[in-house]
Amino acid sequence: MGGVEDEAPALKRMKLSSKGLVGLSNGSSGEPVGGSSSDLMARPLSSEGDGEVIGSKGVIKREEFVRIITKALYSLGYKKSGVRLEEESGIPLHSSVVNLFMQQILDGHWDESIVTLNKIGLADENVVQAASFLILEQKFFELLDGEKVMDALKTLRTEITPLCSDSSRIRELSSRMLSPCGQVGSSKRDIVLVRSRSKLLEELQKLLPPTVLIPEKRLEHLVEQALVLQREACLFHNSLDKEMSLYSDHHCGKTQIPSRTSQILEAHDDEVWYVQFSHNGKYLASASNDRSAIIWEVDMNGELSIKHKLSGHQKSVSSVSWSPNDQELLTCGVEEAVRRWDVSTGTCLQVYEKNGPGLISCAWFPSGKYILSGLSDKSICMWDLDGKEVESWKGQRTLKISDLEITGDGEHMLSICKDNAILYFNKETGDERYIDEDQTITSFSLSKDSRLLLVNLLNQEIHLWNIEGDPKLVGKYRSHKRTRFVIRSCLGGLKQSFIASGSEDSQVYIWHRSSGDLVEALPGHSGAVNCVSWNPANPHMLASASDDRTIRIWGLKRLNVKYPNVRTNGVHYCNGGELR
Amino acid sequence: MGRLFVTHLEGQIYTCKHCRTHLALYEDIVSKAFHSRHGRAYLFSKVVNVTTGENEDRQMATGMHTVADIFCVGCGSIVGWKYETAHEKSQKYKEGKSVIERYKVSGPDGNNNNNYWVGNEAHVGGSDADDA
Fold first, then answer.
1. Which of A46, A236, A431, B103 lies at 20 to 30 Å from A302 by C-alpha?
2. What is the model's pLDDT at position A356?
3. How confident is the model at residue A424 (pLDDT cuts 50, 70, 90)?
């Protein structure tokens, strides 16, 4: 409605019928109710070029668009602007019938409001009935509050009961008559009534179709939806949502992906097979073929240094597992024993082993009071912290080289039970489900929320399963190389939007989780990358463990970052983005 | 190099002569009537713990085939070949199957069977560096 149209003579205007104009508001947001000038406003003739749809795609109806903006203005408290928009556009927020209905609700004219409700022309009789019930319920409460008990009883018997099929609700209302609320001062009571009537309008809004009453915050919802869709479509989104703007379409660059080596950790004497950040992101644990594990501490600047070197295993250390509170760490020797360590002191608190079979995997029970381990005889064992065997599950529960996970609620265990299947086992009920793959499974990991399962396969594919309810394959990722070794992958980044994996070609691979697109292949290591771990507390920090005996810490590419190019405490600092 | 991923077989098994990595089961033999330059070879419906080389066309006694050499994951030694494509109709049954050269493996026939009947206690070293 440009200035030219505003100048148009009155003859060119036509009166707007209230028919077909369905109102949209809930009365609680301060827009004018009843007798609004908008009912009499004229709408420009279609010959004036005022099309019914706007936007380049032709999918936005002008009338709906204007109404939603008007609604947003009232909701934001810009009452004058809302009124002005209604007048200038000739598109009222709601029809005179809806206006009248809302005013009757706020004034407490219950019987008239039900008559008006029926005039709105709602197609669904159930909605009319449910709305009528809400109105009559309000009438009932206000009569009780005004100590008009007989009138309240009459309303309950003759008006509410015929409408309501829920007998328990009728009984509930009847019981209110026996224990009515205490007296309220009249002025205070008026405030309470007005407030409760506004609340009633909100309830009615949820019930009535959006064409009659536009839902609260509809514009905000649409804009949020657009931003979320843009975020999800953005391959590189790995920053906080507060950085998103409405002024332009959202695109993150690759700068949000940790793709620069910020540190090289060189304290192991042999291949590094496993890395895992603690839940709080303050520590990193690594396990090596040199029979040791190392706890690294992450300082405030995101730099890592050795906290403890853990020695004692007689064989290569294949994996580690952080306790739920990050105060203790389990390490597992290859078909040997599991050791429990105190993170603060680096002392070994307990050794878990069995005569005969060796231990091949380890995991914490979510309570932190028990530990689980897979054994080479294909059973799974549960110990208390003092090393007493609490429970054992015999039979084909695990394989020789196998991972073991337990869900966050402590109910289910996951283990590779045969070459191409993962056993999803309820330890309380004994129920067993299988997640079947076509290929041999080499490793797997569970997401923090226990909803997603990442499975590495022999055929150089990684599969993502949603295991809520019936397991469902939701993603496939390929490009990395795996021919001989156990290569591990992980979920990570903001909202676990990315998947990272090691690879036998010495690179770290990163995919966008929902699209499956390869985002980065990071060179730098000089041997196979066996394992990766994304810092749960820092979406811009990734660790990778390699056969080249090093762990690389990957961060964001930044210009003019100056680190001392020295080696201290097993750490090699990398200057800028030069060292990949 | 790396923590080897090896599948552990149970039953009468053929293992790599050099590093004892499990390669195939006696029950998966399709035919013993194969030959290589080095002597007898067996056709298996399924083999494990091998990596596959590049595809190449080879003229064999039974016609043209597209094959790829297969290598033991434990020590990297060549143990046979895999048939990717058989160009003649009568040879199509070979596709997807693998031939292992008998002299490259230890296994049930011609030896004391008990030596090659392996159960749960079968074990392969964690790193190929140990087994090379």
1. A236
2. 84
3. confident
